[in-house]
Design goal:
The complex is a heterotrimer of chains A (about 180), B (about 100) and C (about 675). Chain A is globular, with a radius of gyration of 22 Å. Chain A has helices at about 1-20, 25-45, 50-75, 75-85, 95-120, 125-130, 140-150, 155-175. The termini of chain A are far apart. Chain A is mostly helical. The relative contact order of chain A is 0.06. Chain B has about 100 residues and is an all-alpha fold. Chain B contains 3 helices and no strands. Chain B has helices at about 5-25, 30-50, 60-90. The radius of gyration of chain B is 17 Å and the shape is elongated. Chain C is built from 24 helices and 2 strands. The chains are: A mainly alpha (about 180), B mainly alpha (about 100), C mainly alpha (about 675). At the A-C interface, helix 5 of A face helix 24 of C. Chain B: This is NADH-quinone oxidoreductase subunit K. Chain B: GO terms for molecular function: NADH dehydrogenase (quinone) (non-electrogenic) activity; quinone binding. Chain B: One of its GO terms (cellular component) is plasma membrane.
């Protein structure tokens, strides 16, 4: 049952991503992106990363995706014209280059995984499995994560907060309306 | 319990699709989506490995950090796209060729 | 080694003494152009003076007090930062601000209205800070740092009027010559460190320090270290032949000159020698005395023929520093320090008075729109009519310089010369030359200081502007210039140093320093030498009166000897010719070599190549070009293809990047 659900989510994520990249309509692509992200969030759950999954939905679906749709709508008009021009670009040269590189990556990664799998798990993982230091389905991750954030990773946490603040200020600065005379 | 190889295969697929989106799409927003897909693949790897690390919770913590980075990247990237659109009246990367010498 | 608690107030007092001028410096550096009053500097230096007096009272005639904290560790050697207070330090610690306070007050009037006055106060504070720091620190490394800082601050002050070409040249010269000395100091530090493994003054030089325990130390190294340190002191204290910077340093403001000459810069060299005195062995000491004597003689001769009022004073300083060096060299550094102290007061006064005179001459020059050098003695004369108080004060200081009885100079100079005689009489006839020369120099000193006074203040005015001008611009300096001078004038008299005006042997300074002399005292000399000196002085002053005040000058001012003395025996020209021109000559030679031999070879080679190329050109046009043209066409065609990769589209760049990454991954996995 667990495996079945995993496959269902995996197929959901990969399938919608595949559809996403092959569709030409950007609006549909963006909604498919939402489904992909949802599927990914589901996959996170199978790694017992419930908090990450929730954050994924909140940050990506609630923030990133909305932002993208928003940007899409702002630049929509021209795009439609663009689409009408390159009708049969599926056969275009660049597209086949892209297909070659991405499939190449997939093959290489899969091959590398296969090789890695046959070598067995790394030592630290084996050690942790032996000691029982792996996250179980019954574990409550959220308080642990909170503690880790405020103790072990507090520096990274603060740095990344500042970074996010700077990025947002920068983004709003870049995106502001220029004065007319410019 | 799902073996880690499953996760890694799925993340490899998503990663490749992200690369494809970056290379082939005719819309700057979709390039950004491709980047997000790659980052999501990375996050999936983080949590998959993070399951074996109960002491430090490194995988999950850094998955969250990666998410924050991705959000920041999207914010800045979209701002740039908006500006590009204002300037060139298009967001098709094929038509923005000012990098050419 | 660690600080005992009761002394903690003392420690803070020392730190405050040193750092107050630094604070003033920082404050004025931060305020920049708006800090013109100099009040922070004056307040700081007065505070330093008060604290230094407190410290001196606490430290005087007590065992040396040593504070030490670890600073940093380099390998196995820990360096310490610390303070070493003994009688010598206490004395100098009071002297420096005591001289600096009148100079500061004097400066408020003297530098008034100068465009760069904010810089002036800043540099002055830095100068005082550096000197005070030099006095209290307890190891050679820190001392070296402050030593450099003193040099740097003096560089800034000498070049204070940096728009004048001569000032820039002078401060460059001072800096370069001081570098020679600094090199000596550094070599000395290196030798000490390699021999003893520590730079701590207390550990090295105290009564049962490392130096007294190590009898087997190679004397060559000890001599080398002593001479290296002495070279450092030579440059700072302007000893022959490294004295050339000091006369040129007159380009700075006169108040600065007085500070440099009296208490800060030149005193640093003598202080250094006194502080590390146990280091010097017989050989090094002999070198020091010889150089000191040589300096005293040559500088006195140079001073005789100068016309610039400040230059005379500069040479007299060099000459007196020569005395101090002799004092160190004969092992009686207490007399050297004693002379340094008395000299500080009267030389400072001389400079301040000379500054006042120059100031007034400058006024006169502006008033009559005349074109004359306000520092030239030949343009003065008869000034006592308008500046009687300055004349009296300067005369008093000159008497002290000449070593006249009842003045402080008499005490210290006699003490020094008597010690030298005692030292020489134990050694042999050749050594007697040194005290004999010193007596000669002393008489010369009396002569040239009398010449200075008589030419400037007595006789008839030499400039036409002095006659028939109703409202005369030359007058006494204002109160803020006069009172510091009066104060210094009082300090030139004997009671400050010894209650007995004719004998220095019981003065509190000599008994406080208590240096064990290596020679026996000869009591007969204590009467003989002062009377000899006084007689000589009186005679030479009388002669100077005849010659200069009454204008019965018998010698030819243009004679070769006089000119040579005025040009300081052409030592600058010598330096110019030997060092500067020598190096220029070498450079020119190298240029000629380069031009004619290296270039000639190259040109010969070029000619050959040209000929060969002519031959090959024919081959080229007819045979190779066909190939090349074909290749060029191919390249053009290929380039055209690759050009398309550079199409400005971001996705093609992405593609290239990912493709490279992909290939890299392939390589990593399959190799």
């Amino acid at each position: 049952m667990e495996l079945f659900l995993f496959y269902a989510f995996a197929v959901l994520a990969i399938g919608s991503a595949l559809l996403l990249v092959s569709l030409r309509n950007t609006a549909r692509s963006l909604f498919l992106f939402f489904i992909t992200l949802f599927g990914m969030a589901g996959l996170f759950l199978f790694a017992f990363a419930d908090f990450v999954a929730i954050t994924q939905i909140m940050v990506y679906v609630g923030g990133v995706l909305i932002l993208m749709i928003f940007a899409f709508m702002l630049s929509n008009k021209e795009l439609l014209q663009d689409l009408q021009h390159g009708k049969n670009s599926l056969m275009a040269f660049t597209r086949w280059q892209a297909v070659f590189v991405s499939v190449g990556f997939l093959v290489v990664l899969t091959y590398a995984l296969w090789q890695w799998d046959s070598e067995g798990l790394p030592l630290w993982m084996q050690q942790n499995i032996q000691d029982g230091n792996i996250i179980q389905a019954t574990d409550n991750n959220i308080p642990q994560l909170g503690i880790k954030f405020m103790t072990e990773y507090v520096l990274a946490f603060e740095v990344i907060s500042i970074f996010l603040l700077m990025a947002l200020i920068g983004a709003s600065h870049i995106a502001r309306k220029e004065p007319e005379n410019d | 319990m799902i073996s880690i190889t499953h996760f890694l295969i799925v993340s490899a697929c998503i990663f490749s699709l992200g690369i494809y989106a970056i290379l082939a799409k005719r819309n700057a927003i979709m390039i950004l989506v491709g980047i997000e897909l790659i980052i999501n693949a990375a996050i999936l790897n983080f949590v998959a490995f993070g399951r074996y690390d109960k002491i430090h919770y490194g995988g999950q913590v850094f998955a969250l950090f990666a998410m924050v980075l991705a959000a920041a990247a999207v914010a800045v990237g979209l701002a740039i796209i908006l500006n590009v659109y204002r300037h060139y009246r298009t967001i098709n990367p094929d038509q923005i060729t000012d990098l050419k010498d | 080694m660690l600080a005992a608690t009761p002394h903690n107030t003392l420690l803070y007092a020392v730190i405050a003494t040193v750092c107050l001028p630094l604070l003033a410096f920082i404050y004025q550096a931060v305020k920049g152009r708006s800090a013109q009053t100099g009040i922070p500097s004056i307040t700081a230096i007065i505070g330093s003076l008060l604290l230094a007096s407190y410290i001196a009272v606490q430290v005087w005639n007590q065992p040396p007090i040593h504070f030490q904290y670890s600073w940093f560790t380099l390998g196995e050697n820990t360096f310490y930062i610390g303070i070493l207070l003994n009688n010598l330090t206490a004395l100098m610690l009071v002297l420096v601000p005591l001289i600096a306070v009148p100079v500061h007050i004097y400066s408020t009037a003297y530098m008034q209205g100068d465009a760069g006055i904010h810089r002036y106060w800043m540099y002055l504070s830095l100068f005082c800070f550096a000197m005070l720091g030099l006095l209290v620190v307890d190891n050679l490394l820190l001392m070296y740092i402050f030593w450099e800082l003193v040099g740097f601050a003096s560089y800034l002050l000498i070049g204070f009027w940096y728009t004048r070409e001569s000032a820039v040249q002078a401060n460059k010269k001072a800096f370069l010559i001081n570098r020679i000395g600094d090199l000596g100091f550094l070599i000395g530090i290196a030798i000490i460190f390699s021999e003893f493994g520590t730079l701590d003054l207390h550990a090295l030089f105290s009564e049962n320090g490392l130096l007294s325990q190590m009898d087997n130390l190679s004397s060559t190294w000890l001599t080398a270290a002593g001479i290296a340190f002495f070279i450092g002191a030579m440059a700072k204290s302007a000893q022959f032949p490294l004295h050339v910077w000091l006369p040129d340093a007159m380009e700075g403001p006169t108040a600065v000159s007085s500070l440099i000459h009296a208490a800060t810069m030149v005193a640093a060299g003598v202080f250094l020698l006194a502080r590390i005195f146990p280091l010097f062995n017989e050989h090094a000491l002999l070198v020091i005395s010889i150089v000191g004597t040589l300096t005293a003689c040559t500088a006195a001769c140079f001073a005789l023929a100068q016309y610039d009022i400040k230059k005379i004073l500069a040479y007299s300083t060099i000459s007196q520093l020569g005395y101090m060096m002799v004092g160190v060299g004969i092992g009686a550094y207490d007399t050297a320090i004693f002379h340094l102290l008395t000299h500080a007061f009267f030389k400072c006064l001389l400079f301040l008075a000379a500054g006042a005179v120059i100031h007034e001459m400058q006024h006169l020059k502006q008033h009559v729109q005349g074109d004359f050098d306000p520092q030239d003695l030949r343009n003065m004369g008869g000034l006592k009519r308008w500046m009687p108080k300055t004349a009296i004060l300067m005369g008093l200081a000159s008497l002290a310089l000449a070593g006249f009885p009842l003045t402080s100079g008499f005490l210290s100079k006699d003490a020094l010369i008597i010690s030298t005689f005692e030292w020489a009489s134990e050694r042999g006839l050749v050594y007697q030359l040194i005290p004999a020369l010193l007596i000669l120099v002393s008489i010369l000193t009396a002569f040239y200081s009398a010449r200075l006074i008589f030419k400037a203040f007595f006789g008839e005015p030499r400039l036409p502007y002095f006659h028939g001008v109703e409202k005369h611009p030359v007058h006494e300096p204002g109160a803020s210039m006069l009172w510091p001078m009066v104060f210094l004038g009082i300090c030139c008299l004997f009671p400050l140093f010894s209650l007995n005006p004719f004998s220095s042997s019981h003065s509190w300074i000599l008994s406080g320093l208590a240096v064990p002399h290596s020679f026996a005292a000869i009591h007969a000399l204590h009467l003989l030498i002062p009377s000899m000196l006084v007689t000589g002085t009186v005679l030479s002053i009388t002669l100077a009166w005849k010659w200069y005040a009454q204008d019965k000058y018998p010698l030819n001012a243009q004679s070769a000897l006089m000119l040579a003395a005025e040009k300081q025996f052409y030592i600058n020209e010598f330096n110019q010719r030997i060092w500067v021109n020598g190096i220029l000559g070498i450079a020119k030679g190298a240029y000629w070599l380069d031009r004619h031999i290296v270039d000639g070879l190259v040109q010969l080679f070029a000619g050959c190549v040209q000929y060969i190329s002519k031959v090959s050109s024919w081959v080229d046009t007819h045979i190779v070009d066909g190939l090349v043209n074909g290749l060029a066409a191919l390249t053009y065609w290929l380039g055209n293809i690759f050009r398309q990769a550079q199409n400005g589209k971001i996705q093609s760049y992405f593609l290239a990047a990912f493709f490279t990454l992909f290939m890299g991954l392939l390589y990593l996995i399959f190799s």
